[in-house]
UniProtKB/TrEMBL annotation:
Lineage: superkingdom: Bacteria
Source species: Limnospira platensis NIES-46
Protein name listed in UniProt: Serine protease inhibitor
Domain (Serpin) ranges: 65-425
Family annotation (SUPFAM superfamilies): Serpins
Similarity-based family: Belongs to the serpin family.
Keywords: Protease inhibitor, Serine protease inhibitor
SMART domains in alphabetical order: SERPIN (SM00093)
GO molecular function, one term: serine-type endopeptidase inhibitor activity
The keyword Nucleotide-binding is assigned to this record: no
Keyword Ribonucleoprotein assigned: no
Amino acid sequence: MKKLWANYCQYMGLLIATAVMVAVSGWAIDQIPDSHLISDLPAPQTTENMAMNDQVVAAYTGFAFRLFSRVYQHQNQENIFISPASITNALAMTYNGAAGTTKEAIAQTLQVQDISLAELNQANLALNQSISALDEDVQINIANSLWLHQSAFFLPDFLDRINQFYQAKLTAVDFSSPDTPSQINDWVKQETNGKITQIVETIPNQTILYLINAIYFKGMWSEPFDKELTQEQPFTLIDGSTKLHPLMFQFGNYLYLENSDFQGISLPYADDARFSLYVFLPRENVSLDRFYTQLNATQWEEWIKQMRSRPGSIQLPRFQLEYEVGLNDSLKSMGMDIAFDPNQADFSNLTPDNNVRISEVKHKTFVEVNEEGTEAAAVTSVTVFTESTPSIPEPFSMVVNRPFFLAIRDNQTRTILFMGSIVDPGL
């Protein structure tokens, strides 16, 4: 039964990611802004902007399937459930801080090397915003946050871009405090509606920054499954053995595709069917490995186009799954190894510190599929290290007990409004 279950879980992950994507200094920081849920209505899209969004979606879809292939190579006997949309959000924020060959490597990995940074940021904002105004049967929350070492220096331009285009919550914290992991994890719990409760355990001494994305999805089927029709049935596992598992049943008209290798179906959420669950089931004589040799972004798009409405029945496992994976090795194998290299990584667009690198990319997900619909959540964290201890300036003492100069300045226009010399404050 594990074979079918694993196949289903894997495609559930690809569904949500693809649906989301297609629909879709010492600067003094305290906490800006407190509201970081993407909820603004999207600005009107020009033809040029829509074409750019399509180009970014195509790039991210290619990245999604290549990443999935890398993860599957190491976990082909296990359930897999990833959110490429969460991962690309986190990596795109990180990309904003990269420079030189490190920036080129991340661009190649994300397949956005032909897209300018400004265009990519604008497209990400538009894609995230476009999925926010949904009906009551589909809820989606995309949230980003940066957790910054309070004694490290970050370039204002980098922080401005992340705040503007990724609407990230920016918080300066004391990474040496035992309360900081709980503070970060509380944010994760809140943004995933309690489905993922922890992304940070302990904070290594070299950490200067966490870039974190959280996604929460809850969709009700356009036609719910009847609970009375759910029955325990044999499910064949990947080793050929069987176990009893509840399978839901439904009959109706669905977008459907079949050939000698598989059957594929689209199960829509809500009345407008903007989001759907796609399930691809290899034939009994076709192994999962063989099916995945065909699976890539080009073939995926072709299969979706070939689907046609047909009457039929579907029996689908009811299940709940929690999943966690470290993405360092997969991303390195896709061309991002320089970003992890302490001797070569270049994040000079993030901080003047020239000893900065990515130390870890961690990904956690949750999914539950039942008769009512689907609930899913994902969190991706990018941990940034410095090889040198962040410098903490010595406290100073300033006693104004003698004549002094002062000025009042408009810092936006740089206009000096008042200026003077005080030689006797008692007069």
